[in-house]
Write a structure and sequence with these properties.
InterPro entries: TPR-like_helical_dom_sf (IPR011990). It comes from Streptomyces spongiicola. Keywords: Membrane, Transmembrane, Transmembrane helix. By secondary structure, the protein is an all-alpha fold. It has two domains: about 70 residues; about 55 residues, Serine Threonine Protein Phosphatase 5, Tetratricopeptide repeat (Alpha Horseshoe), CATH 1.25.40.10. Helix content is about 80%, strand content about 0%. The chain has five helices and no strands. The two termini are about 35 Å apart.
Length: about 150
């Protein structure tokens, strides 16, 4: 629940920032000189990119949460029994051992979205966020019946 609140607050702050930046872009364009119109147009591109980025991330998170809920209902969510440091971080060796299991499971069933979901969690636990995101994207694509991106 805390993560959802943090995401919502961060998204709201980003939207406020994008509105303010867009307003500045409009003000620059209204000045009417060649230079300010060029800068204003450039500034207006930032909110468009930011909104696209926010939209894509929100869609990704919602789809990943839907998969987690479905997997939880099936009783297939990975159990978080990883060893943690006194500071609360996951022990790297423990995460690597679980990752090896998840990788082998995924290699045995490469078309099962559940395996890819669990592999994504293992990547995340091993602090490899880019690969975790790609594995989750593959799980989402497999679940939707789409061919996964290469």
């Amino acid at each position: 629940m805390r993560a959802k609140i943090s995401y919502a607050v961060t998204a709201a702050v980003l939207v406020v920032y994008l509105v303010l930046a867009g307003g500045r872009g409009v003000l620059l364009i209204q000045q009417g000189t060649l230079l300010t119109v060029a800068f204003g147009a450039a500034v207006l591109i930032l909110p468009v990119i930011g909104l696209w980025f926010l939209w894509q991330n929100t869609r990704f998170v919602r789809k990943a949460n839907a998969l987690a809920a479905e997997l939880d209902a099936e009783g297939g969510l990975p159990v978080d029994d990883l060893v943690r440091t006194p500071g609360g971080r996951i022990d790297r060796d423990c995460a690597d051992a679980v990752f090896a299991e998840r990788r082998a499971e995924t290699e045995d069933s490469p078309d099962d979205w559940r395996c890819w979901f669990r592999l994504a969690v293992a990547y995340h636990d091993a602090r490899d966020t880019p690969r975790a995101r790609r594995a989750m994207q593959r799980a989402i694509a497999l679940h939707a019946g789409r061919p996964p991106a290469a």
